[in-house]
Amino acid sequence: MLLEKIQHPDDLKGLSMEELQNLVNETRETLLRKISHHGGHNGPNLGMVEMTVALHYVFNSPIDQLIFDVSHQTYIHKMLTGRAEAFLSPEHYDDVSGYTNPKESTHDLFTIGHTSTSLSLANGVAKARDLKNEKNNVIAVIGDGSLSGGLAYEGLNNIVEQGTNTIVIVNDNDQSIAENFGGIYKNLKELRETNGQAKNNFFEALGFEYHYLEEGNELTALIDLFESVKDKKIPVLLHIHTTKGKGFKFAEENREKFHAGGPFSLTTGDYLNSSSQKETYNSITTDFLMRKMQADPKVIAVNAGTPMLLFNKEQREKVGKQFVDVGIAEEHAATMTAGLAKNGAKPIWAVFSTFMQRSYDQISHDLALNDLPGTILVYGASVHGMNDESHLGIFDIPFLSHIPNIVYLAPTTKEEYLAMLDWSIEQNEHPVAIRVPVGSVKETGIKDQTNYAQYFKNHVTKEGSQVALLGLGNFYSLAEDIALDLETEHNINATIINPKFISGLDTVLLDDLVKNHKLVVTLEDGVLDGGYGQTVAGYLGNKNVKIQTYGLEKTFHDRYSASELLSENGLTKNNIVKNILNSL
Amino acid sequence: MLLEKIQHPDDLKGLSMEELQNLVNETRETLLRKISHHGGHNGPNLGMVEMTVALHYVFNSPIDQLIFDVSHQTYIHKMLTGRAEAFLSPEHYDDVSGYTNPKESTHDLFTIGHTSTSLSLANGVAKARDLKNEKNNVIAVIGDGSLSGGLAYEGLNNIVEQGTNTIVIVNDNDQSIAENFGGIYKNLKELRETNGQAKNNFFEALGFEYHYLEEGNELTALIDLFESVKDKKIPVLLHIHTTKGKGFKFAEENREKFHAGGPFSLTTGDYLNSSSQKETYNSITTDFLMRKMQADPKVIAVNAGTPMLLFNKEQREKVGKQFVDVGIAEEHAATMTAGLAKNGAKPIWAVFSTFMQRSYDQISHDLALNDLPGTILVYGASVHGMNDESHLGIFDIPFLSHIPNIVYLAPTTKEEYLAMLDWSIEQNEHPVAIRVPVGSVKETGIKDQTNYAQYFKNHVTKEGSQVALLGLGNFYSLAEDIALDLETEHNINATIINPKFISGLDTVLLDDLVKNHKLVVTLEDGVLDGGYGQTVAGYLGNKNVKIQTYGLEKTFHDRYSASELLSENGLTKNNIVKNILNSL
Questions:
Q1: Do the chains contact at A369 and B358, CB–CB below 8 Å?
Q2: Which class does domain B459-583 fall in?
Q3: How confident is the model at residue B121 (pLDDT cuts 50, 70, 90)?
Q4: Nearest chain B residue to A63, by CA
Q5: Which one of A380, B55, B144, B281 has the fewest beta carbons within 10 angstroms of its own beta carbon?
């Protein structure tokens, strides 16, 4: 097998065209074998096989510097840069991350997992090269989906302005995670349909030398194109049409389904273990919003490039104009939400915690400063969310809860969640964010009648003394576990509080607690620094009560086991009970 | 005077062309009279006189909805929507803010002070209109400078996608605050030079119906254009060439100087009280960076559209390629900084605290996750920074200090600042941010020899007992004042600590303090929630010591007096001394 002999991209240089084509076939087969067993970003990698081989054949990594946008399409790149074992041997499948990672290889310049960053990174890398008077090529590979992010546009602008060697490759497979949305995609379509000759050309308008390649899965065509632009002194843009899922018919036929996912059958194209019909917080949200939309044409859901969070394709067709996918453009989603709310619509913006990070100023300056009643649904904000260091959802509380006017809520059950969501959509006072619970659905069967316009009013679920436990959102059940242990094992009747509100304190309650409690314990499912517990500690610091705050260390935790990480951070019932007893 | 009779834009509808032209002249004269005495955004408003009159003549605000990007160009709009008095009567000059403000008028849809938001807001407003089946025009006015921000591109994309009435006006005066940078500006230039007929057209490429108007300061041409697109069912883009500073020759001739500024002489064009040669933290930075750059070609300063923060025009020419203005594109600035650092350059990104808000994910995901040694200089992070609610610099500590790997420093003197800056540029470990001091320069005359690679080591400047005062950055001198009062008036020998590090705690010191202190007091020049003091309180909460945390309430404070705001937030020596005495 040729692939087994490739330790470095230099090993490609001496291969014949026939051998290179064999390598293409081997890598695609290797890829299919791994992803069908292991899962991953399936379609994006299948489409990139030929391009990656051609890139490493023509350019000289790591002297020539390759930067892949999002970097979820770099499995072949990893195979060709000394990491083939992680794709050939099942026992080594987890040796590599799903993204580029400088800790794995010098051929990976950056850890990248969010979209639209590659061009700005390349612009910096190229500028540093120029300052050092070096001469290598800087190559950025960006998918068409990532072009919807404003940062990509800023990158394009500045690459042209800089004016020196930077090779921008637009890998156009006519698909984001789901369909593409936005004016740019009409132009990409025109360009594809005219073999790059359309009158209007977005890239030429910005000042790029532009090259179109229709056969983006043809090895020799790719090699010819790359050789023609290698070492150019000016920025060039290569618009290359590839097929997402190339070489696996089920993936070619259903590109949304095969963007990413777990193990699948090579013969039927079905995902294994995917037919769960169980209720989830996602499915609850979908059902609720569809009912709301039907009842009120002003209810509208907004999403930035991850529509399946709310609606599958069929559901999207059903809700029609009451759903907008703005492309991978969280900034726009946030600011558009402000515009919608201002003009009397009832917008709900659904966003993963990790991607919400792209919109701080839009939340602050557009939504919060204008104090507009939009709803943000924050998904995956938990230690039990995505666990790659580039996709953590645990920074949302410091990020969001200290922005003025934002009411940030943490439900603990289905009933609370739906009551909060309904209240938020109908209220007209403030921007409201809801930390969508992560984990299995908890149902009480009792309708939540809370008036959430009583801002920051906590719910005391069990009155006790000595110790008060504030269990925020996902960690409310941990508070219950601790209280039960304290009661049964140590005869301590702890107070249990469901704070419900993250972005403000129930100061009346806290003042009251001080009277018959020696210790207040806060539990939150996120980083400790800048979080909820520290705000409580700041408020109580000058009073006659001790405070223990529990949360995660401020680090980019990577591919962790949640239970181990919780344990390392002292977030276990036994540890907390021990600390409580020590403190009393 | 006609202007005095205009209470509502409807009052324009019956005027003849001659009267409208008289109104143009009156408003420009009124504008010049006010700004020459009061200061403000001079050039942008002078250029918008004719366009604003034409907009209100043709469209029907507030039924037709006008949204102005940044909204610093809305002085004429305010004059024509019931607020002329605030421009005619010096005693009413401060009745209006420098931006649109819904609290002032229903003709102002949003409070806006940051750039590139108008198109996304308009997209939301228009979508809500469509959901409600209403038919009004939605008009967004955006300057060419604001087009460099990625959010503007996301807005353009989505307006085209939506496909219904939205009138985008690009007010092209060929100038941002300073010069424009980026590929888009080459295209705008081509379009201006060809009367809109250039082969490449950025806006048409994105799918807009495009109209060019060369005479953007000609009232009748503007009226004709607006009437021709009013009530269109599809998005249109009007590219209108105006003259920044129109009608005041000094402003026309020096557009950067007259972007904004204090009172000036109408006869000489000189700013009053502007010739101060005193050393400031800005001038210190400029001098230091110019020396560093001369000594090391790898040192490079990055800025997003506010270059005068570091270098005036002459200085920019001098530093040449070692300075990059990326346009009003803070996201790109942050991510480019990561690229520069990765490839061996020594980047320093200078940014106002309020505008840094646009780049959370770029700081987190690109710079911090990759742990790259770029330097961020954070300007105006203080209660004494800009004081309009849309330009506050007081949220930086919760925003920045909880991102992993970021070393955020708070210098208290010139010597500390320069030592930190020099160390940061030369170190190779982490991203470092420095909170540039605000206020007059404090000089000790003694070189700071601190090794800042000893992360989070605080400096105990005075050892005492009972009370420990942690005075962060700008508020270190307040700690000194309090200590002096405690000593001289109350015979208490307080410990004074200069924390220097914002993003981490000196836990050895804090543990030690507990032994002979009853109270720890934190003082920070920013919002309290999510800030430094709360992190200290969280750490000390379970120990035998009380904590008092001082900072500002989490609110969008507006056009405040700093001393009053400090007093309202208990941030006075007398109040804090009183609280300390109560607590001991």
A1: no
A2: alpha beta
A3: very high
A4: B343
A5: B281
The answer to whether B184 and B149 are in contact (CB under 8 A) is no
Nearest by Cα to B410 from B304, B291, B504: B504
Decide: B326 and B336 in contact? Cβ < 8 Å.
yes
Q: What is the pLDDT of residue A275?
A: 60
pLDDT in tens, A473-524: 999 999 999 999 999 999 999 999 999 999 999 999 999 999 999 999 999 9
Average pLDDT for residues B463-489, to the nearest whole number?
Answer: 98
The dihedrals phi and psi of A542, each to the nearest 5 degrees, come to -95, 10
Mutation choice for B interface testing from A104, A151, A179, A519 by most B CBs within 10 A: A151
Q: Could A150 and B148 be called an inter-chain contact, meaning their C-beta atoms sit closer than 8 Å?
A: no
A535 with B530: Cβ contact below 8 A: yes
How far is A124 from B333, CA to CA, in rounded Å? 9
Query: pLDDT tens across A448-460, in order?
Result: 999 999 999 999 9
Alpha helices in B449-506 (DSSP H): 476-490
- How does residue B276 score in pLDDT terms, banded at 50, 70 and 90? low
Q: Within 10 A of B439 (CB to CB), how many other CB atoms are there?
A: 12
Nearest CB neighbour to A151, from listed B199, B200, B331: B331
User: Under a CB-based contact definition with an 8 Å cutoff, are residues A157 and B327 in contact?
Assistant: yes
Q: Can you tell me the distance from the alpha carbon of A306 to that of A326, in angstroms, rounded to the nearest whole number?
A: 10
Q: Which regions of chain B carry the CATH code 3.40.50.920?
A: 459-583
Q: A-chain residues within 8 Å CB-CB of B130? A: 321
Mutate to test the interface with A, among B153, B364, B388, B406 (most CBs of A within 10 A): B153
Structure tokens at A147: 């072009």
Nearest Cα to B563, choosing from B383, B388, B389, B392?
B383
Q: Is the pLDDT of residue A316 over 70?
A: yes
**CATH number of this structure's domain B281-435:** 3.40.50.970
Question: For A258-272, A491-505, A558-572, which range has the lowest pLDDT when averaged over its residues?
Answer: A258-272
Nearest to B51 by CA among B19, B29, B73, B30: B73
Q: What's the pLDDT at B274?
A: 64
- Give the residue-averaged pLDDT of B257-278: 85
Of A151, A157, A548, nearest to B184 by CB-CB distance is: A157
- Provide the β-strand partners of residue B140: B67, B168
Chain B residues inside the 8 Å CB shell of A355: 361
Nearest to A470 by CA among A494, A488, A448: A494
Closest residue of B to A336, CA-based? Answer: B124
Listed in order, the ranges of chain A carrying CATH 3.40.50.970 are: 3-247, 281-435
CA-CA distances (angstroms) from residue B312 to B148, B288, B316, B350? 21, 15, 6, 14
Q: Is A526 helix (H, G, I), strand (E, B) or coil?
A: strand
Six token digits for residue A305 = 């490039």
**Distance between CA B433 and CA B337 in Å, rounded?**
12
Domain with CATH 3.40.50.970 in chain B: 3-253, 281-435
Q: Tell if the CB–CB gap between B546 and A546 is shorter than 8 Å.
A: no
A3-247: CATH topology:
Rossmann fold (3.40.50)
Min Cα–Cα distance to chain A from B204, Å: 7
Asked whether the beta carbons of A333 and A326 are under 8 A apart, the reply is yes
CATH class of B3-253: alpha beta
Are A124 and B329 inside 8 Å of each other by CB? no
Q: Would you call A573 helix, strand, or coil by DSSP?
A: helix
pLDDT band with cut points at 50, 70 and 90 for residue B83:
very high
Residue B51 CA: distances (Å) to CA of A12, B4, B20, B28, B191: 62, 19, 12, 12, 20
Note the pLDDT of residue A431.
98
> pLDDT category, A276, cuts 50, 70, 90?
low
How far CA A416 is from CA of A299, A413, A426, B484, in Å, comes to 20, 5, 15, 52
